[in-house]
Amino acid sequence: MHLLFVLHLVFEVQSISMNHNFTCDCSCHVELKSANCTSSNFTNLPAALPPFTEQLDLSHNHLSTIQPRAFHTTRRLRVLLLNDNAIGMLADGAFSLLEDLLRLDLSRNRISSLSEGFSQGLGSLRDLSLAENRLTSLDSSCFVHLDALQKLNLSHNAIETIKMRAFGSMSTLRQIQLDWNNLTVLKNGIFSMLRNLEVLNVCHNQIDFLDIGVLSPLTSLALLDLTYNNLSTIQFKTFLSLNTYSTHIMLRENPWKCDCDLQRVFRKLCNVKRLFLDDYDNLSCFDENNRNYTAGFHKEFCVGEMVTVLVITITVVITVVAAIVMAEKKRGKKNKEKHWTEASELSCASHD
Ligand SMILES: *[C@@H]1O[C@H](CO)[C@@H](O)[C@H](O)[C@H]1NC(C)=O
Ligand SMILES: *[C@@H]1O[C@H](CO)[C@@H](O)[C@H](O)[C@H]1NC(C)=O
Ligand SMILES: *[C@@H]1O[C@H](CO)[C@@H](O)[C@H](O)[C@H]1NC(C)=O
Ligand SMILES: *[C@@H]1O[C@H](CO)[C@@H](O)[C@H](O)[C@H]1NC(C)=O
Ligand SMILES: *[C@@H]1O[C@H](CO)[C@@H](O)[C@H](O)[C@H]1NC(C)=O
Ligand SMILES: *[C@@H]1O[C@H](CO)[C@@H](O)[C@H](O)[C@H]1NC(C)=O
Ligand SMILES: *[C@@H]1O[C@H](CO)[C@@H](O)[C@H](O)[C@H]1NC(C)=O
Ligand SMILES: *[C@@H]1O[C@H](CO)[C@@H](O)[C@H](O)[C@H]1NC(C)=O
């Protein structure tokens, strides 16, 4: 009975597809408006795809280039999966006709640079993944047309430099993954338009310096992940300039220096109500002999300074007390001498 019902359903779906007159090189589904061409050994884009296709899965093929206006027969695409191919070359305007495209997955390809023409026509795109490619630099024009982007995944590339206006047009961006790249500094101005950014993930880089004002434009930031970097010290103002309601900051797995100044920075941070140093208890630090102390900041590094202050105070007190005592002694001696004279006079007198 149950099986019969399922069979009936399958037959119906097939008959619906038969009634439509279109050719499809992949596995196409009318109602879902989808074409699934995954793992089919395509080296070029399939020639025949239904024009109504809104979801196209071309993942796990052998595509190596995308020509200009490549998708001119499927202009209604909303989701395009090109992940796990061998794409090294994206022509200018490769996606220029896809004005309804919402999601583009280009992860796990061989893309090493992005030209201005890459983002042409992608004004509706909300979700872009370029993870696990070979990008080394983000130029000021590479994302210029992405006016509606909300999620950008750039993790697992080799990005060393981010040019000043690289994220310039992306005021709608909410999440950016820049983890597992080769960033060493975060310079003022690189995040200047990202006022809606909520998640900034820069873990697993080699960052050893943040410009003091670099985080100040991020007025919506809720999560900042700086773990697994090369930070040994940081200035309080760098985080204080975050003008947000509430931001969680993660800082563990950095070679922090075990010293009083840094301890003060972290303590002051813990007192700023809107900032949460989530992993303060897990920060390890390195002393001058490069020894790694787990939960290092539970120790007291301002002891040295306290001792110095104490020593100075004690010295001053001792000096003052000594001076008073000396003065008293002097006075006492004078008095004693007086008594002695008196006594001797007396004794002399009694002697007489
Ligand atoms: C489908 O359309 C083509 C022309 O585009 C026509 O030659 C063919 O006969 C049609 N097939 C069906 C089953 O309607
Ligand atoms: C395409 O089909 C494969 C299985 O053949 C499936 O894993 C994948 O999720 C499908 N793609 C889409 C976008 O539905
Ligand atoms: C793709 O090519 C591989 C190796 O040549 C082969 O084993 C596999 O069956 C092919 N897959 C398809 C869907 O043709
Ligand atoms: C970004 O891409 C990486 C690598 O493919 C993946 O592991 C991660 O889940 C993605 N992150 C998001 C938020 O999509
Ligand atoms: C980038 O960083 C990775 C570690 O995350 C490292 O293996 C690689 O050598 C670095 N590449 C360059 C060009 O520095
Ligand atoms: C970490 O930063 C130090 C300078 O503070 C530098 O000498 C070292 O090479 C950096 N390490 C990495 C892995 O980039
Ligand atoms: C310091 O030691 C802890 C605990 O053994 C370890 O988790 C951490 O990775 C070390 N820190 C660094 C920067 O090597
Ligand atoms: C962080 O510290 C807490 C307690 O101090 C401990 O239970 C937890 O395992 C630590 N987490 C990591 C990732 O080291």
Automatic annotation (TrEMBL):
Signal sequence residues:
1-15
- How is this protein named in the record? Leucine-rich repeat-containing protein 15
Keyword field: Glycoprotein, Leucine-rich repeat, Membrane, Repeat, Signal, Transmembrane, Transmembrane helix
Which Pfam families does the record match to this protein? Answer: LRR_1, LRR_8
User: Membrane-spanning regions, if any?
Assistant: 306-327
Q: Which GO terms describe its cellular component?
A: extracellular matrix; extracellular space
**Which InterPro entries does the protein's record reference?**
Dev_Immune_Receptor, Leu-rich_rpt, Leu-rich_rpt_typical-subtyp, LRR_dom_sf
Q: Does the keyword Transferase apply?
A: no
Which PROSITE patterns does the protein's record reference?
LRR
